[in-house]
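All the exercises in this workshop are built on plain-text protein records. A record pairs a protein's sequence with a compact description of its fold. The structure tokens are whole numbers drawn from a learned vocabulary of backbone shapes. Once this layout is familiar, the rest of the handout is easier to follow. An example says more than a description, so a record of this kind follows.
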Amino acid sequence: MSVKHALLSASSAHRWLSCPPSALLSKQFEDVPSHFAQEGTDAHALAQFKLERLLGINTKDPTESLKFYNEEMADHADDYSAFVLEQVEKAKETCSDPQILIEQKLSFSSYVPEGYGYVDCLIVADGTLTVIDFKYGIGLKISAESNPQMFCYALGGLALFDGIYETNNIRLIIYQPRKENISEYNISKNELIKWAEEVLAPTAQLAIKGEGEFKAGKHCRFCKAKATCRKRAQYNLELAKYDFDEPATLDKQEIAATLTKIDMLVSWANDVKEYALKEALQGTKFEGFKLVAGRSNRKFADEAAAADIVISAGKDPYEKKLLGITAMTALLGKKTFEEILGGLIVKPPGKPVLVTSDDKRPEHNSAYQDFNENLEEINHDKNS
């Protein structure tokens, strides 16, 4: 589903609430859709179809028009629609006639000038308004807690059904299947309206005028001005100003200070390089740099012809490799896969990574893991 986004949209609320002038600044840049955005659009279209079909709504199957359709996407869309149905049944426990809205345009313009957005699913019932957002992205794990995009959807839902349902509780749910993430957060209607009046509305007034202070941070990730924004450059270049002269090596506190910024520094550097390359390809000259042909690898001009020649020489030109789990599931079908191969699936521990202390994953204990691995080896030797 292709939709036009408002200047101060719900989906970009986290960014413009953190950095109000970024909204008008971003208008100067062309909106270039990415591979990931199109994949997400396809996943949403499929999820909408499957959910509407489960609800008995006559709807058109979009599968043939989806560029990024695959078996994994279909499975996640099935699971999402089943999950939403569970939430509908939960709403029916306290309300005989809950309303279910899918891909509904919601206006929160009473707080944000021309503010609107499209919610994936809204379940309206006496007592509780449930907002469900389907996130197909695999990059960042998204939390529903104090999520301004979800808050804006909830405000739009309250405005739409004001006086029809007596709603006191707002239930926000992020459904992000490829990160195995279902995040839920509850907020009262009064708390939400207080936030809208004290935070959302005044910040929106700054943003619509291009006023307020520029601020760099994680919210820069999806800003169209991220490559050329001076504030972001200053923020990241602070790391380059670190005084490394004395002592010769960094202490733990200095390394920790560096780690807090290094991911954003790398992201910023890559954004600047990508922007500069795009501009150079269009004729812009940057002092001290030039465009050259990159390295390339040799390849067969005609793979089929090469294979025929090798076969005629009496050799096998193909290598055989076991299909991965996703491809094997697609080959056998999900049910058959689980029946005949489910017992052979293992999930080894992931490679340790260093993250900030607020990450919700349990801390890695190498000594504990080594002990378990040794214990498994001992038990294996006993049983052999």
